Amino acid sequence: MDGNKKRSGSAQTPKTLESKLVATIMLVVALLVPFVYRTSIGFGASNTIRALFWEYGVSGNFTGFALARWSLSLDSLLYIIIHFLFVYMIWSFYEKKISRAQTITVGIFLELLKIGPSLPMILTILMEPGPFYVLILPFPVLFIAGLVMMFVFPPSKVTAPW
């Protein structure tokens, strides 16, 4: 051998302080900012803004904040998974595992997935407006925060020591 130590396992990119910091910021954003607006018209009409650990609702029987309800988290599981996938994509971009274009493309796709649960109701409202409906509209706050991070604070360029 030439004196170099053999690495076990696959080659890994170094985990930089920069990518960890960005992933932490994005994780905090994913946990705290609202990700969906839910409105229902008809019997028991209500309007709700939801985040992972809280919601703010206005309805006939309740107005105010609710914190850490498990039913809230289970009801919003699709949105939670999408948020964490996008945080992972941003981390991967800062680790230089994927490009900016790939990150944006996946982010747009994930945002479109969040519209999925409401699409049948939107089509129903457009074709046959009725006296009752529930509409869920996503907030793209995390996606916008990710775009800002990628363009305002791009990953630093690694310079070769030689």
Residue share in helix:
40-55%
Domain unit count: 1
Return the string of H and E elements: HEEEEHHHHEH
Global mean pLDDT: 79
Commentary on this structure:
The structure is a single chain. The chain has 6 helices and 5 strands, in the order αββββααααβα. α1 (17-32) packs antiparallel against α6, α3 (77-94) runs antiparallel to α4 and α3 (77-94) packs parallel to α6. With 162 residues, the chain is of the alpha+beta class. β1 and β2 (46-50) form a beta hairpin. The longest helix has 18 residues, at 77-94. Mean pLDDT is 79; it is low at 1-14. It has one domain. The chain is elongated. It has helices at residues 17-32, 70-75, 77-94, 100-115, 119-127, 141-152, and strands at residues 36-41, 46-50, 54-59, 63-67, 133-138. It has a 5-stranded antiparallel sheet with strand order 4-3-2-1-5. The two termini are 24 Å apart.
Any descriptors?
alpha+beta, elongated, disordered N terminus
How is the secondary structure organized here?
Layout: H1 17-32, E1 36-41, E2 46-50, E3 54-59, E4 63-67, H2 70-75, H3 77-94, H4 100-115, H5 119-127, E5 133-138, H6 141-152
Antiparallel strand pairs: 1-2, 1-5, 2-3, 3-4
Characterize this entry briefly:
This protein is an alpha+beta fold and 162 residues long.
